[in-house]
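ok trying again, last paste got cut off:
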Amino acid sequence: MSSVIAALQGLGIKVEITDGVLCLAQGETQMNPMLALRNFSKKPEYAEFFVIEGSHPKQWSTEKKIEFLRNHSDEEYRKLVQEPVLEAGIKTMDPNMSRKAYEGLTRFERMTFIREYGDDAVRRIYQR
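nice, full thing came through this time. structure:
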């Protein structure tokens, strides 16, 4: 995380972590952390910081599975298939998040969300 923060600060972005919530600003403009990190992760020089593509065969195309089997043994593939699926993507708490994303938060994350954005944000999420 410290490498990501240093890279963001190198781009002129003010980074703060308040009660476990990432806050980004550039000048006087507050940035949506989810969109900012999503765009940040697309830059090739910062791709190493993020899991963009899942490493589980369930998420691969047929061509990628064939390529893996050409370079690895059946045993390695079997072990990979038996591992849990890690979901690729960037998740941040955002008052505009979907209901499904909000319900996926842990109890601590929900408490932090309510402390940061208030009860109104939760109500708006459930009204959508």
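cool. Residues 53-88 form one domain. The chain has a mean pLDDT of 81.
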